[in-house]
Amino acid sequence: MRSAQWIPVVLLGAAIAASSIPAHADDSQAVIQLYQQITGLQQEIRELRGQNQEITHELDDLRKRQRELYMNTDQRLQALEAAVSGGATAASSGSAANGGTGSPSAASPSMPSASTGQPAASSTSTPAAVAVASGGNGLDAYQQAFNLLKNSHYHEAVDAFKSFIKQYPQSPYVPNAAYWMGEALYVEQHFNQALAQFRLVVNQYPQSNKVAASMLKIGYSQYELKQWPSARKTLQNVVNNYPGTSAARLAADRLSRMQREGH
């Protein structure tokens, strides 16, 4: 780079020296033109570098907005599923209180019951009930991990969910923690790991209310990995096995998109 900066100076010196010799006037003029061309090219390079920086910044912003949009969509899905099951008033009210946007920062983590892994009856549980619930099943640790996820600290959230599952392997919140780990990995674009995590939820916790959403995310992950036939098959299974749900609608939307894209 430094040597490149010296080139115009050297050429200019050569041009000046050459211009002092009448016999080589034409050559001097050619050198000056060459110097001007190089100077112009350097200016263009500087402009291109500036444009490249602007594009990189815009791309980072787009990625951030994409992640936020994905999380908002997922929160709406969770709230709708909870409302349909009649088991998670918290998720529904959280979305409504947020103007229907389903912002992750406003949504509450879905709390499974102790016996089935389904969402708790309501977030309106009394403080005493919550205190009892958090006594030995790791509720506090689960909430802390989920808060990291809501605040977009995805890497930290994955570690926190891992720690929670290791510390409370019998907790009824484990299926949800496993699912949200997959979500964090997906948002971080670790699609292979996310795919494995969502499959784990489906295979190890078939009674969890996260199965349909996990199936959908398996299809999404396969899509991101360009596993087109597998993605189509998975998404079609979601449409067939969970008719009338948000997961089925989103799967159908992705299938339509794949068709438009020629996948």
UniProtKB/TrEMBL annotation:
Alphabetical list of SUPFAM superfamilies matching this protein: TPR-like
Annotated Gene3D superfamilies: 1.20.5.110, Tetratricopeptide repeat domain
Principal cellular location given in the protein's record: periplasm
The entry's keywords: Cell cycle, Cell division, Coiled coil, Periplasm, Signal
Domain YbgF trimerisation span(s) in chain numbering: 28-83
InterPro entries: CpoB, CpoB_C, TPR-like_helical_dom_sf, TPR_rpt, YbgF_tri
Location(s) in or outside the cell: Periplasm
Segments forming a coiled coil: 31-83
Classification via Pfam families: TolA_bind_tri, TPR_6
Biased composition (Low complexity): 103-123
Disordered as annotated region, ranges: 90-123
Segment forming the signal sequence: 1-25
GO biological process: one example: protein trimerization
GO CC field: outer membrane-bounded periplasmic space
Cited function: Mediates coordination of peptidoglycan synthesis and outer membrane constriction during cell division.
Similarity remark: Belongs to the CpoB family.
UniProt name for this protein: Cell division coordinator CpoB
Species, as recorded: Acidihalobacter yilgarnensis
High-level lineage: Bacteria, Pseudomonadati, Pseudomonadota, Gammaproteobacteria, Chromatiales
Annotated gene: cpoB
